[in-house]
Design goal:
The chain is 47% helix and 9% strand. The chain has 344 residues and is mostly helical. Strand 5 and strand 6 form a beta hairpin.
Length: 344
């Protein structure tokens, strides 16, 4: 493919480090101007990266079909969706919907209006306030959007957590897993933690979540202990302000990277033989455990940094074994039927 995505960390702070280049190595202006605008909006580097790859896919489709952004209409939008669905392997509905969302934002950025043409789809939906209360409002959208399967939260079992946990040999790695399992941190939130965010004396942690929204989380005694051991016994002398840094090799003392974290989990999944263990599954396990323990949904919403209560509600869906356990407990509390000794 003639288009490629590069990372230029030498770019000014107001510009996106992700740049789309053509086969001559020249910048693709209609993409990079949009990415720069998102950087000015203070989008995170993670979000910018996702946007950049979505637009790389779009640029390559334009090149293959000889279409362009200026000629885009609702019919071509349908053609773009069909193209993606016919790919092998086919992207998920969530991925396609995100690409469509970015494409619509790109078109508005350059032309100040929605993509022209008669909409092919019209969908009614109802909304309430973010807290799930208030009068329902019926809205109509004409945006093309694929139906996404309902998300099902599948936490790790207690045995899986135990097998995965006992395979770690450094306090740094134990601290990372503890923050995901006992505070529900996302992998990107763990990597963004700074030394100044940690207060050992008060047993709490300041976390910067999605949209740069900050929340303060309590630390359990177990998490506090492994963090103290990591800081006092393992963390190399370094000028880095990042909480978690590399412990060995050429990157020793430098901030831990997303690739390093993925490699860490990949290794321990194989070693522990718990293939489902990944950072987000640990976060799901935390949310599910909190619901089972009886925590209120608003409190869990704050702990997990959710923007909407609907996301937190996903953790209320319980597994069949939980249903049977709750049923047995409820039956015990009901009026018991007396069984006659003999039926005549």
């Amino acid at each position: 493919m003639s288009f490629r995505l590069v990372v230029q960390n030498s770019m000014p702070a107001s510009a996106s480090p992700y740049r789309l280049l053509d086969h001559h190595g020249r910048e693709v202006a209609w993409v990079n101007q949009f990415l720069d605008a998102q950087k000015l909006r203070q989008l995170s580097l993670r979000s910018l990266r996702i946007y950049a790859f979505d637009l790389l896919h779009l640029a390559r489709w334009f090149e293959t079909t000889r279409h362009s952004l200026g000629k885009l209409n609702q019919s071509l939008l349908l053609e773009y969706v069909r193209y993606q669905l016919e790919q092998q392997p086919s992207p998920t509905p969530q991925t396609i919907n995100h690409r469509l969302c970015v494409l619509r934002a790109l078109y508005r950025f350059h032309y100040g209006q929605e993509i022209p043409g008669k909409p092919h789809f019209q969908r009614r939906y109802t909304t309430r306030s973010s807290l799930g209360c208030g009068r329902r409002q019926t809205k109509i959208t004409t945006h093309l959007r694929l139906r996404q399967p309902r998300r099902v939260i599948v936490p790790l079992s207690a045995d899986q957590v135990a097998y995965f946990w006992k395979g770690f040999r450094t306090f740094r790695d134990l601290a990372i897993v503890a923050l995901m399992l006992q505070d529900g941190l996302r992998s990107c939130e763990v990597l963004q933690l700074q030394l100044e965010d940690l207060s050992l004396s008060e047993a709490h942690l300041r976390v910067s979540g999605k949209g740069r929204k900050q929340r303060v989380l309590p630390l359990t005694a177990d998490t506090l202990q492994v963090l103290q051991n990591y800081l006092h016994l393992e963390r190399p002398l370094t000028n880095s302000s990042a909480l978690f840094v590399s412990l060995k090799g050429r990157q020793r003392g430098r901030p831990m990277t997303a690739a390093g974290l993925r490699s860490l989990f990949r290794h321990h999944r194989l070693q522990s033989r718990v293939p489902q263990a990944n950072p987000h599954r640990l976060r799901h396990t935390f949310g599910s455990d909190m619901v089972r323990a009886g925590i209120s949904l608003p409190a869990l919403m704050h702990l997990m940094g959710h923007a909407h209560i609907h996301t937190t509600m996903l953790y209320v869906t319980i597994a069949p074994q939980d249903v049977w356990r709750e049923y047995a407990r409820a039956v015990e509390q009901r009026i018991r039927l007396s069984t006659p000794d003999k039926i005549s």
